[in-house]
Design a protein that fits this description.
250 residues; 2 domains; two-stranded antiparallel sheet; 62% helix; mainly alpha; 4 strands
């Protein structure tokens, strides 16, 4: 009986120590993120602007995706030798652009690695690892998700980050809309990790085909079918009329 009580107390203390470190690391991560600064820009805005530059550069050079005809041959596994060489060029330009624009904030990435490591490898055996993972990921925005993905993709030296992202199931948190398909394919080819296609839930619980039929039926009955909605408080914002006078959107 005493041994059982001692074991229980030991587990309780171990869990308390783990949680204390976990929450301290969470606070440290938040503070480090807030401390990120490039000129006058701080925090998440730094990451967002870096990713904006990536997107703008990839689109400007037209290297953000395979050409449609080549994508068709990729899907049907009929790529030619020239196709493969052109894909190599796309990969090369993506690595150059992403690697240059996503200049890793070393302290932030290092702190995130320590936090991931604590969740992946430091949880006491008797505790529920998934609980801490969910708590951690609930605090990470899509901005940070994509930023850390791009760091892991484009910087070979970040092997520990890639290992921890895989161990913790981090990639399950990224929706398909947040990263380019080309980047998912590159990550699989060069780092051996397949990025799933997590779909975001529909905004309404009706199948698209059912909505389409409903709109069609409403039109057939003489109704004015609408498929979008503007928030009422937006509609009522003051605006200038042709005479320069303020009125209200109706």
């Amino acid at each position: 009986m005493q041994e059982e009580a001692a074991k229980h107390n030991s587990q309780k203390e171990e869990k308390a120590r783990y949680e204390e470190i976990f929450f301290r690391l969470m606070d440290m991560y938040r503070q480090t993120l807030c401390d990120v600064r490039v000129g006058e820009v701080t925090g998440r805005e730094v990451l967002l602007k870096a990713m904006g530059r990536v997107d703008a550069s990839l689109i400007e050079e037209r290297v953000n995706a395979l050409p449609r005809d080549m994508q068709g041959r990729w899907d049907s596994k009929t790529l030619t030798t020239i196709d493969l060489q052109r894909i190599d060029y796309l990969h090369y330009r993506n690595f150059k652009i992403v690697g240059a624009e996503i200049n890793p904030q070393a302290r932030l990435v290092d702190t995130f690695e320590v936090l991931l490591g604590h969740v992946a490898r430091g949880v006491p055996d008797h505790s529920l690892t998934d609980t801490y993972k969910e708590l951690l990921f609930s605090q990470i925005t899509f901005i940070e998700c994509r930023y850390f993905f791009l760091v892991a993709l484009s910087h070979p030296a970040r092997a520990r980050l890639r290992d921890l992202l895989a161990e913790t199931g981090f990639f399950e948190r990224i929706s398909r809309s947040q990263i380019y398909k080309l980047h998912r394919d590159m990550y699989k080819e060069y780092w051996g990790q397949e990025i799933g296609l997590r779909e975001l839930p529909s905004s309404i619980p009706m199948a698209p085909a059912r909505v389409k039929r409903a709109v069609k039926a409403h039109k057939a009955a003489g109704g004015l079918a609408k498929t979008t909605y503007m928030l009422r408080n937006v509609r009522q914002l003051p605006r200038k009329n042709e005479r320069g006078e303020s009125d209200v959107l109706q």
